[in-house]
Amino acid sequence: MADLRPAAAILAPFVAIGRAVIAMFAAIGRVALFTGRTIGRGLTPPYYPSRFFEQLAHIGWFSLPVVGLTAIFTGAALAQQIYTAGSRFSAQSTVPAVVVIGMVRELGPVLVGLMVAGRVSSAMAAEIGTMRVTEQLDALATLRTDSYRYLIAPRLLAAVIALPIMVFVANAIGIMGGWLLAIEKLGFNSANYLDFTRRYMSVDDFKMALVKAGVFGFFIALMGCYHGDRTAGGAAGVGNATRNAVVSAFMLILASNFFITATAFG
Amino acid sequence: MAESKIVLRDVGKAFGPNRVLDGVDLAIEAGESLAIIGQSGSGKSVMLKCILGLIRPDRGSILIDGEEIVGLSGAALDRRRAKVGMLFQGSALFDSLPVWRNVTFGLTQGRAVSGARMRAIAEENLERVGLDRQILNLKPSELSGGMQKRVALARAIALRPEIIFFDEPTTGLDPIRADVINDLIVSLVDDLGVTAVTITHDMASARKIAHRVAMLYQGRIVWKGPRDRLYDSGNPYVDQFVQGRADGPIQ
Fold first, then answer.
1. Does pLDDT of B9 surpass 90?
2. Which residues of A touch B48 (CB under 8 A)?
3. B172 φ/ψ sector (left φ>0, alpha ψ -120 to 50, else beta)
4. Quick one: which of A149, A193, B44, B148 could link to B199 by a disulfide (CB 3.0–4.6 Å)?
5. Apex CA B126: angle with CA B123 and CA B131, to 5°?
6. Which of A52, A53, A142 to mutate to test binding with chain B, by most B CBs within 10 Å of its CB?
7. Is the Cβ–Cβ distance between B169 and B149 less than 8 Å?
8. In the β-sheet with B59-64, what is the strand arrangement from edge to edge?
9. In contact, B163 and B83? CB cutoff 8 Å
């Protein structure tokens, strides 16, 4: 069979590519099934409102300090960059416009999405993953409680609702950060700055930001729960699930952000 | 002859190339206590999880009270599951919930239900396993391993199941605490008339709690018989296992 070996060597890269492609489609299929099951069962009773509010507090309220700090620093840094870059061709007056557009359309949703993904996807994957490896998920089933309804649907719904609210707050704080820096350090007149800010603030931009936030919230909870649910192999397995949840949530947020932006301005 | 409580026919399950169960045939009678012995990784837990509907077998049939459970899902499976309680190896208590909500979880199914009545039910079930009301509000992590096992047992019996599975109930406990659990299993079988199936490596425990013993090896039941025959079974696999010898047919 020695004559087969050269052929095998030539085929090897194709085999590797094929295997990776198949694995990718299998993963997409698993995520789609998981999503379908969560939505299908989440829509039918029993419902768990108390679990939903608990998650809303976890995802929303307790993430606010982190999100607020991220927004204020980013807004201020953005104002400084635009001012420095703009002063080369005396376009310093664009600072309020760029801050408001940049924060609302892109930085607000993306940075909040990434911060919350780091905080929440990881925590969800670790918690559900630990429940998997300690047989708590099996125990739920033997006690006739559906884990999709009890654990996963409340997290998904809470994230989809919490993220838009947080992005709204972050946008406001980010614009305030830019304004603070502009009047304190760059010597802008406060009334003028705010007037420009209002002129460039558009309802459509806010709508897009909120749509993005809802989509990001969905991916954040979905990746946390999906990887948690699939956990196998003890403490190391929980570690892998946590890492995979955060990395995949980041990727999905950045990719979907691009597609929403590209579609909106297509 | 009355029909058996649980019947497994030719049950097979493979994970990839690894055939964990390879044609298990077993009948368990109502009110009996059966111990299943076998090496770690011989498929004992997988077998119980198949009966619970947590794992779907690749082939074969599993009947509880004459009703097929392989292939069921959703509400139909939940109705059958109501007959079965399970004590997990690591207790599998919900660590975010206090003891009383753990014990009554099967009744509330996780919903926040008014406290007073549920606490009374929790207290009653804890009493059954020899624990008092002082631990009602504690979190599972604040309890010792032996107490966690007993709380988990209280949770399993709160739904008054007809069948209870015990997955290595004495593993990780000192001999005295292990014997407390053995006594509880015996009293559940004798007093409440439940059908008990226990996975164990602990020969002292098997001899105390079981009426009958079955041995699982390479995915099949290689021996079953009354517990008194455990030490003179005439079966080389059982002999090697119960005497704990490294050399013999099991490698």
1. yes
2. none
3. left
4. B44
5. 110
6. A142
7. yes
8. B18-28, B6-15, B59-64, B67-68
9. yes
So where are chain B's domains? 1-83+195-251
Q: Which of B18, B54, B149 to mutate to test the interface with A (most CBs of A within 10 A)?
A: B54
Structural domain harbouring A8: 1-44
pLDDT greater than 80 at residue B112: no
Match domain B1-83+195-251 to its CATH number in 3.30.465.10, 1.10.20.140, 3.40.50.2300, 3.40.50.300.
3.40.50.300
Nearest chain B residue to A48, by CA:
B111
Average pLDDT of every residue of chain B: 89
All residues of chain B having their beta carbon less than 8 Å from the beta carbon of residue A51 are 110
Q: How far is CA B116 from the centre of its chain?
A: 30
Work out the pLDDT band at B1, boundaries 50, 70, 90.
very low
- Inter-chain touch B109–A134, beta carbons under 8 Å: no
The CA distance from A215 to A156, in Å, is 11
Q: Contact at 8 Å (CB) between B33 and B59?
A: no
A238 with A136, same domain: the answer is: yes
Q: Report the residue from A46, A138, A139 with minimal CB separation from B111.
A: A46
Q: Which residue of A has its CA nearest to B109?
A: A145
Q: Do B105 and A141 touch (CB under 8 A)?
A: no
Task: Give the number of A-B residue pairs with CB atoms closer than 8 Å.
Answer: 57
Domain check: are A11 and A115 in the same one?
Answer: no
